[in-house]
Each structure stands twice: as C-alpha cells, then as structure tokens.
Inverse folding.
C-alpha cells in the first residue's frame, strides 16, 4: 500500500472517530477523547480570534474535518496527543513530592517506549494546539516541559473533573506556573520567617517545658507557609473571615503564630499550676482549645477563628462548615454578588484520618448541597505518611489519602512539604480556585513527624527506617535558611537575625509570664474566647402570644396562592382541618403548633432553620413546611410569607447523614445565636449515627470550651409496635450525659408544650441545647391536641404537668403515677376503662433539669398518697428509670415502684402482638395494688 493511500485511510479513520465522539464523547477511548476535546478547544480559540479581528458578519460554523490539518503525520501526532494527555492524568504519580525520598519512581506508563517513540523521534518537531498555545518544539523539549509541569515538586490531580471549563481553567494555571517558577526575594524571606516562627516556637517550648506534650508541628512546618500565604491573599480576594478546624498536631503553633493567641497565655498553660480562667465548667487540654482574633494586614483586616475540638479526628469539620455558613448569613455573604466569597472555611487534616474517617466523605458531600454549601473549602492535609504507628499500606486501600475527594471533583495538589515556594503558589492557587468556582480544593502536603505521635512517643519502635532518616535530617527551617544564604537572597547575619528576633520575642513573653505569675496578676491571661452566661433557672418564661398574632399566623399557614394546585389529599383534609381549628379555637395538633411557634419567632425577628432527612414534609407526613404544586412542582413555603419584615426561614431536606448534618447544624447554632436552629432525625434512634457530635460537642462543649448552643434536636420516639429500630431515641443515653445544667431533655405530651418550649429557647437569657423526644402516633392522636387558649398571652411552658382529672376529693388519691410522653395517654385510657378513681397521673415534661420543687408542689395536693410509681414504655435498663427514680424518691420521701418492660438488650420487640401484650402488662402494673 502506497503512502498516499495509507494517509487517506488514516484520515478517514480519524474523521470517523471524530464523528463518533461528537455523538457520544464516552464512546471513544480516553486518548481520543482528550485529542478531540483539545482540537475543539483550539478550533474555538481560532474562531474567536477571527471573529474579534473582523467587523464583517461571521457565517455560522461548518462541520470540521479533523484530518484536514495540513502536513500532519497522524500516527506521530496521535502519539504526541496521548503523551500530553497521560502526563496530565498520571504525571503526579512520579512527581518529587516526598521529602524523604531521594528520587521518585518513574511510572512505566509515561515511558517514551510506551508510545512507540524512538531516539530519532526526539528531535522531530512536535506541537498540539492545547499545550503551550500550540508552540512547536522538539519532542525532547516537549517531554522535558511536561515533566517540569506535571512531575516536579507538585503532583496535580485534576483530569477527573467533569466540568470542562473548570478543568481547562486549572490546566491553564498549572501550565502558566510551570513557565514562571521564579519567585521574588521578598516572598522567600517571608516564607523563611514563617518556617522559623514554627520551628523556634517548638524548640523554645521543648526546652522550657521539658517532657510536656505539645503535639508539635516539627516536620510539617510548611503548614505555616500555606496558611500565611492564604491569609495575606484574603483581602485582595474579598475574604473578610476565616473559619478553621484542625486536629491537635500543630494546634499550639497555629494558635501562637497564625491566630495570634496571647503568647503569655499559651506559655502559662504549660505551667504545672495552670488553672483555666473559666466562669464555670471543667476546661480542656491546651491543644484542644479554640481562639479567634482579627489579623491586621497591609491591605485589610481578616477575622480568624479556630474552632475548639476534641481528639476525635475530623469530627470538627462539619461544625466549622456550619459556623462558616452562619457567618455568611450574618454578613450577607449568601447573596448573588458575593455568593459566599467573604467567609472562607479552612480545614486541616491528617493523612490517616482523611482516608480513614467516614465523616470526611460526609462533609465533602455537603459541599454543593443547597442548604449546606459554604462556597468551597480549602483542605490542607498534613501528610505525615503514617497514622500514629500505622503505615499507609495498612491504613488505606487507595493510592492516596486524598482519593475520597475525587468524588466531588475537587482538584488535588500533592506538594512537597519542603518546597516553600511551591507551597506558597499552591496556597494562592487554592484560594483563587475557591473564590472563582465556589468549590472545595485539596492541598496534600507531604511531610513527616519529627517527634512521633507526640513528644513522649518513640516512633522508631514501629518505623525504624523512617525514624533514622528523619533523625539524620536537618530541621527544615535550617535547611531553607541555608538555601537562601547560598542563593544570595540573604546574608548569613541577616538570616541569623531573623531567627534570633523570633527567639527573643518568645523569651520576652516567657519572662513576662513568670513575672506576672509571681506577682499573682492573672489579668493578662486572657487567652480564652469563652462566653459567660447566667445560671440556669426554672423561672417560667412568658411565651404566649396575643390572639391577633396567633390568628394572623394561622391564616398565613392555611392560605394557598391563586392558581396553585395543592395535592388533593392536603386540599381535602390537611388545610380544611387547620382552618376549622382556627375558627373554633382548636384543636391544634403538634405540627400546627410547631409552625405557629416558628411563625411567631419569625415575626419577632428570630430566624429559623430546620434541617434533616425529609423534614420539609416530615417523616410522618405531618409537617408540610413546603407545599408542592401537584402539576408543576412549583413550591410554596407559607412561613416565608408571615410578614413583610419577618426574619429568614430556612428548611432543608438533608442528605442521608446524621454525623455531618447534625455537626453542621450545631456549628450553625454557634455562629448565629439569634436563630432557632433545629435538626430532626428521621427516627430518633438514627441519632446514634452522630454520637460523637452529641458526646463531644453538644453535651460537653459549654463545660470544656465555654461555647454555649441552643440547638434543638427533634428525635421521634414512642413504642408503637414498629420493632426495635424505630421505637426508641435512646432517652437513657441523653440523660446519662446530663450534669451541671448542660442540656434540656424533654418528652412532651401536648402541642402547646412544644410551642412554648421552642419559643422559650429564644426568650431566655441563657442558651442550652434542647433534646426532645418527639411523638409519632401522638401527631394524629385525637387526645394529643391543644386549644387556642393554651397558646395565648399569660401561658408558658410547664416542666411538670398535674393530672388532667379533677378529683372531687384529692384526699382519696392513694397512688401517684409519674410518666412522660406517649404512655401518659395509654395510662389515662387504662384508668378510665377500669374505673380507677384513686390514682393520679403526673407528667414529667422536662426530665432534665429536674424541677423537684414543682414535683413536690403537685404531689402535695394528694396528702394521703402512699404509693408512687414510675411508668415507662422502655425496658428497665433503658428510658428514664435509672435517672429518675433517685430524684423522685428524694422528693416523695419513700421508694418509688417501677412499671415498665423488663431488662432487654434490644429496645423493643419485633412482633406487634408481643408489643401489645407487654404494653397491656405495664399499664396494669402501674395501677396494681
């Protein structure tokens, strides 16, 4: 076959492939897809240039023949295309990103032999339109350029990004950076100072407080270059605030040198006699504490806040995202103009935790969801290349610790942690990307731990080879200092002076701390951002509203816009039932009471946020906070129409997560104190998927860090014969967490109580999380309703409710049955059906804090009562029994009997028949002599 025929066949094949790609880009091999994508990009750029240079009308584009490019050796050109594509895709696998490796291993898939190139080919002219603007160069120069761009000190992962415009933007910035890797001396000197600040701080603490744990940043000092490079670029990029979260490694260094917490306070916290300067609570270890400050920069100020968090790695991430979104709302940073560019979340991770903790994937999944997105987060992974004592080979099944981030199309930059200028560029690139696209980005900084997990840990036990390498390695700050002296950026005296100035500052701070301590002066130890609040009080809070407001809100909730096609079921039953209740003064059910409470708060200036799985409709079809047009699915949200000057109402169906979403909403409650923030579990027992957030933040944060919250947790709870998984919200676990008035735990029986409790959250002068066992069957139970009068002025929440039965002679009452929640109605029915006249039923609506005075006042009405019973639906070892009986016995002065299910390892029976037998038995036991 002659060469002309061969060329024509190749051209025909190319055009066929191109036509196939135009019809379905996924139907051709990735190499061809990359080739055609670049061809179209080049053609589009060419057309754009032609159009801009001509004032004449431009005809419509005609179909292009790919093979029409003159003088093209298609086989050679195709191999060049494949080479460029694969360097972009795989170049990171052979990048020199590990400071502990002398030379990286070359990926055989990027070997020139793989593409059929010979030594003769290396001097051939090569080009393609989407690499360096189509510049023609020898193939050997192109290979060198590709290696310098994609296999140098940064390994780039971005070809997984589905959005073509985003992918091209990233590529252009990467290739532009490769052409200009020279950095100003000023930038180098600043980076040296940041590195030495970190290094000298650790050395100083190590010498002054020998043996004290500090979880040093040694080996990962490049962290400070990344953080400071981001910070100094914030004003020019429109960032006013940074919300940060990180684990304990390097936290003290970040607090001292980045957030700028008081140095005297940090040093004082290392002294053996340190006692937290808190108004109440237990405090926490110094490397869990948070802080916030305002950093003064040359071209503006930036508020920097580092969230307090426990040792549960990655748990704080969702909390930070929630705080960031709350701050965005307060600053008006959620509008069309700023679109969340003014408040920047930054999360620092360890490599083992980023790969190992499922909460990381959950929080990443929040990033683009309407109710939870924060305009993108910059993730910095301090890649120690080890997790405590576990090597990556034992810690993950993926190639990189960062692979989970690929699921949200986040660009990933693997950066050598001992290359400050590359870290500097990566930090500024990350901020620019985040500001432009509102998406997450990951900087994976490869480094090491010089001290092991902590200063007392001996890494050589399990990692002897790496430990020897590190021990023989000069500290990075000293290495970079020598580098700058050698290249003439600084003289040796200038470099030494930078270091000496830092040491002198630390020494002066230490001496000041000693002097103040000896003088007994604690006034300067102000390194806490604790929020003091008044003591808890049982005092009633007036939460009733006037009738005009009640009726107005009710009418808004039952008004449907003209032309809106409401679902027939809602149109026939839901809305008419509410309209009738408004007209007749009741009955008001649970969901209606909830909407009335929210509407009243909105009118009074308190924003409301409700989020959770399927919470717009409600798990039990009870809420319908959002109406959907039956024909168009257009939305109508009544609570957005309460008044012209109302506060903001937000209701979001969350994705299928408890950990991340509860953490997010908790963080939101911290950042926006005036907002009523509610999280609803689809079923109460689902909350155990967020147990770390409950244990480490919601129940204990006020005591540890003095950060109050009034988040409301709604946990559907009640024994309806639905089996073990959807009966119990694990009331006992919350009660076990209760101490020092840290929580409010309730199990209410009436809609009005729920109404008043929600309003009370925003009308007290202190803030406490409210944990509610919310009903299931009571949502529609005819007796579980309230009347209009129960909501009006003069009414309030009652922590204990007396019997609804009016006894003609209270002295005849010989038995008092205490209970909470749904079982109350079962007890009332049992008493009525069996004509029991000598037993009173008292409801403990608020279980914690326990209002013993109110209990005593109620039972004093029954002077001859000699038998006291606690009745619950839950098994003996669950529910409120273990918590409540010693408190009740203290009030009544005698033993309290138990009526309920026996001990069990499972919350409820799986059989409905068995459930009803057990329920009948426990009701009878409550009244038996």
């Amino acid at each position: 076959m002659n060469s002309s025929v061969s060329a024509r066949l190749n051209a025909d094949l190319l055009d066929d492939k191109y036509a196939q790609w135009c019809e379905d880009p996924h139907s051709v091999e990735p190499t061809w897809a990359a080739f055609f994508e670049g061809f179209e990009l080049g053609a589009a750029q060419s057309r754009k240039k032609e159009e801009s240079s001509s004032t004449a009308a431009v005809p419509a584009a005609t179909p292009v023949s790919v093979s029409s490019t003159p003088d093209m050796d298609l086989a050679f050109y195709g191999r060049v295309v494949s080479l460029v594509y694969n360097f972009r895709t795989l170049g990171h696998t052979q990048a020199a990103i590990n400071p502990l490796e002398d030379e990286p291993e070359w990926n055989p898939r990027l070997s020139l032999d793989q593409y059929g190139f010979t030594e003769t080919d290396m001097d051939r002219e090569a080009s393609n339109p989407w690499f360096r603007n189509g510049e023609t160069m020898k193939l050997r120069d192109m290979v060198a350029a590709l290696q310098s761009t994609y296999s140098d000190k940064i390994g780039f992962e971005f070809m997984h990004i589905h959005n073509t415009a985003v992918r091209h933007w990233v590529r252009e910035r990467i290739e532009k950076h490769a052409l200009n890797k020279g950095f100003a001396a000023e930038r180098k000197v600043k980076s040296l100072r940041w590195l030495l600040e970190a290094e000298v701080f650790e050395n100083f603490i190590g010498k002054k407080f020998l043996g004290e744990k500090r979880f040093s940043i040694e080996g990962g000092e490049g962290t400070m270059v990344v953080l400071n490079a981001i910070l100094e670029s914030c004003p020019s990029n429109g960032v006013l605030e940074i919300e940060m979260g990180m684990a304990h490694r390097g936290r003290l260094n970040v607090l001292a040198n980045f957030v700028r917490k008081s140095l005297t306070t940090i040093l004082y916290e290392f002294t053996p006699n340190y006692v937290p300067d808190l108004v109440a609570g237990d405090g926490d270890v110094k490397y869990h504490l948070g802080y916030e400050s305002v950093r003064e920069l040359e071209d503006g100020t930036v508020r920097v806040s580092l969230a307090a968090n426990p040792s549960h790695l990655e748990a704080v991430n969702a909390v930070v995202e929630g705080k960031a979104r709350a701050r965005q709302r307060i600053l008006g940073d959620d509008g069309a103009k700023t679109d969340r560019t003014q408040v920047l979340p930054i999360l620092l991770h360890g490599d083992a935790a980023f790969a190992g903790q499922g909460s990381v994937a959950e929080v990443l999944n929040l990033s683009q969801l309407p109710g939870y997105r924060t305009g993108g987060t910059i993730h910095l992974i301090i890649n120690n290349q080890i997790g405590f004592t576990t090597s990556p080979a034992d810690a993950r099944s993926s190639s990189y610790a960062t692979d989970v981030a690929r699921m949200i199309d986040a660009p990933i930059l693997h950066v050598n942690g001992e290359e400050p200028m590359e870290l500097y560029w990566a930090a500024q690139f990350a901020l620019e990307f985040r500001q432009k696209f509102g998406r997450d980005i990951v900087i994976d900084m490869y480094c090491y731990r010089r001290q092991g997990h902590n200063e007392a840990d001996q890494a050589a036990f399990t990692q002897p080879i790496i430990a020897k390498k590190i021990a023989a390695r000069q500290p990075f700050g000293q290495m970079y200092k020598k580098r700058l002296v050698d290249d003439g950026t600084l003289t040796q005296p200038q470099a030494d002076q930078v270091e000496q100035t830092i040491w002198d500052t630390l020494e002066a701070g230490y001496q000041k701390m000693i002097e103040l301590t000896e003088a007994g002066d604690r006034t300067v130890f102000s390194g806490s951002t604790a929020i003091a609040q008044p003591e808890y009080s049982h005092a009633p809070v007036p939460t009733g509203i006037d009738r005009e407001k009640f009726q107005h809100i009710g009418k808004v909730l039952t008004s449907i816009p003209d032309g809106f096609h409401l679902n027939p079921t809602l149109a026939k039953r839901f809305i008419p039932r509410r309209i009738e209740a408004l007209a007749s003064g009741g009955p008001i059910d649970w969901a209606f009471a909830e909407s009335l409470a929210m509407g009243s708060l909105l009118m009074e200036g308190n924003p409301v946020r409700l989020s959770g799985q399927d919470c717009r409709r409600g798990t039990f079809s009870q809420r319908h906070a959002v109406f959907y047009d039956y024909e168009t699915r257009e939305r109508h949200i009544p609570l957005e129409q309460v008044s012209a000057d109302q506060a903001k109402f937000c209701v979001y169906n969350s994705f299928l997560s408890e950990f991340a979403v509860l953490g997010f909403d908790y963080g939101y409650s911290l950042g926006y104190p005036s907002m009523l923030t509610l999280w609803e579990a689809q079923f109460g027992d689902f909350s155990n998927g967020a147990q770390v957030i409950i244990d480490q933040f919601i129940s204990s944060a006020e005591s540890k860090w003095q950060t109050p919250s009034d988040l409301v947790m709604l946990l559907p709870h009640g024994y309806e014969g639905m089996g073990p998984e959807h009966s119990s919200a694990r009331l006992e676990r919350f009660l076990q967490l209760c101490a020092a008035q840290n929580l409010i735990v309730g199990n209410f029986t009436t809609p009005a109580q729920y109404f008043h409790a929600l309003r009370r959250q925003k009308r007290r002068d202190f803030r406490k999380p409210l944990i509610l066992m919310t009903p299931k069957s009571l949502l529609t139970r005819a007796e579980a309703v309230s009347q209009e009068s129960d909501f009006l002025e003069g009414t309030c929440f009652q922590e204990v409710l007396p019997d609804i039965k009016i006894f003609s002679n209270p002295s005849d009452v010989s038995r008092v049955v205490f209970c909470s929640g749904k079982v109350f109605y079962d007890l009332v029915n049992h008493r009525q059906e069996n004509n029991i006249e000598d037993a009173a039923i008292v409801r403990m609506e608020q279980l914690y804090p326990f209002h013993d005075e109110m209990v005593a006042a109620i039972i004093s009405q029954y002077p001859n009562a000699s038998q006291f019973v606690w009745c619950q639906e839950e098994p003996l070892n669950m529910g409120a029994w273990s918590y409540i009986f010693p408190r009740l016995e203290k009030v009544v002065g005698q033993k309290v009997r138990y009526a309920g299910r026996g001990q069990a390892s499972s919350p409820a029976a799986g059989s409905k028949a068995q459930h009803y037998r057990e329920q009948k038995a426990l009701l009878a036991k409550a009244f038996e002599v």
User: Anything to note?
Assistant: The mean pLDDT is 89. The two ends are 108 Å apart (CA to CA). Residues 304 and 911 are 55 Å apart (CA to CA). The chain has 29 helices and 24 strands.
